[in-house]
Amino acid sequence: MTIEPNSDDQTAEHEDASEDEGFSAGMSLKGSLREAMQAPPTVYEIVGGQRFFDELVDRFYDAVEDDPRLRPMYPRDMGPSRRRLAGFLAQYWGGPPHYSDERGHPRLRMRHMPFPIGLAEREAWMAHMTASLDAATIADGTDRPLPDEIRAAMFDHFDNAATHLINQPPE
């Protein structure tokens, strides 16, 4: 998938979107999502760089701080957890590879295996991340909303990852 400038009609192509949906960043998504995340401008660049991911993760972890189901899974000092998640997401969406430089391959299932994650934990995690994503704006000081295509792609990523991390049988 490549991100290309739109024609004058400002329509977007996306595997799951109709051609009538506009893309407010003036770009179109074509091909695979992986290619789009790495092709200039990357999603990382469109959303405002590291600041966007830091703010997304801060809103998420602020909610987790008060969640009786999720909070016990995290260390007392959640600063390092915040930095790791923000770094991972920034890299995943086309930013610099600092996460991999510091931590190697993400190995998400392996890193989360010590924590009992069932459907209830997954739903709580998704509720907080979805609320954070819903509050997200382009991190350029304009408070412009995320382009629908980028918000949908991020939601799908979070939804799939949260499901993938379930390691407990249904209750």
Strand content: under 5%
CATH topology of the domain at 47-164: Globin-like
Helical stretch tally: 8
Q: If strands are numbered along the chain, what order do they take across the biggest sheet? A: 1-2
Biggest sheet layout: 2 strands, antiparallel
> Multimeric state of these chains?
single chain
Q: Helix share of residues?
A: 40-55%
CATH class of the domain at 47-164: Mainly Alpha
Assign the CATH superfamily of the domain at 47-164: Globins
CATH-derived architecture of the domain at 47-164: Orthogonal Bundle
Average pLDDT: 84
Radius of gyration based on Cα positions: 17 Å
Low-pLDDT stretches: 1-28
Based on secondary structure, the structural category is mainly alpha
What's the shape? Answer: globular
Q: Count every beta strand, where a strand is a DSSP E run of 2 or more residues.
A: 2
